[in-house]
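Note on ligand handling. Small-molecule inputs were canonicalized before submission; formal charges were left as drawn, and no protonation-state enumeration was performed. Where a ligand contained multiple stereocentres, the stereochemistry in the source SMILES was retained. For zinc ion, this procedure yielded the string shown in the input block below.
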Amino acid sequence: MAEAHLIIRVQAEEIYFNQEEQDKIKALREKAAKEKQEQYCEEHKYHCFRCGLKSLVEVQKGNIAIDICVNENCGAVHLDPGELETILKDSGLINNVRNSILNVFK
Ligand SMILES: [Zn+2]
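Structure output:
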């Protein structure tokens, strides 16, 4: 009877240690994944979402800064959150932005 009790206790400790090790492994994996993602984001910071080249130029117009891809075969325009709404509210700003974009290719 006492033996059976001992066996159960040892198994419980093994489960505890395994869980602790698993938690450590999980934490290390999560840390590595986070660092990998941060490194990827840093490396691709100025890359165009469309053509993938490191070709973004920031054009400041009024109170918004728009990232424009200067790759001649692309020309994608990147907007930060809220910038589209700002542009749509002001039709004059749309023309300013359009002219700024066209000037980049002149
Ligand atoms: Zn591009």
